[in-house]
Amino acid sequence: SDGYFACSIGEVSSSIIQRYIETQG
């Protein structure tokens, strides 16, 4: 359960970071 949660967070995190970079640009 924790492994799946961590993996899911990783994917979401990278997506949010990319969105954040585009917004800052």
Structure write-up:
- By secondary structure, the protein is mostly helical.
- It has one domain (1-25).
- It has one helix at residues 2-24.
- It starts with a helix and ends with a helix.
- The model has no long low-confidence stretch (mean pLDDT 81).
Please outline what is shown here.
The chain starts with a helix and ends with a helix. It contains 1 helix and no strands.
Outline: rod-shaped
Written as H for each helix and E for each strand, in order along the chain, the element string is H
Helical residue percent band: over 70%
Low-confidence stretches: none
Largest sheet: none
- Quickly count the helices: 1
Q: What's the average pLDDT?
A: 81
CA radius of gyration: 11 Å
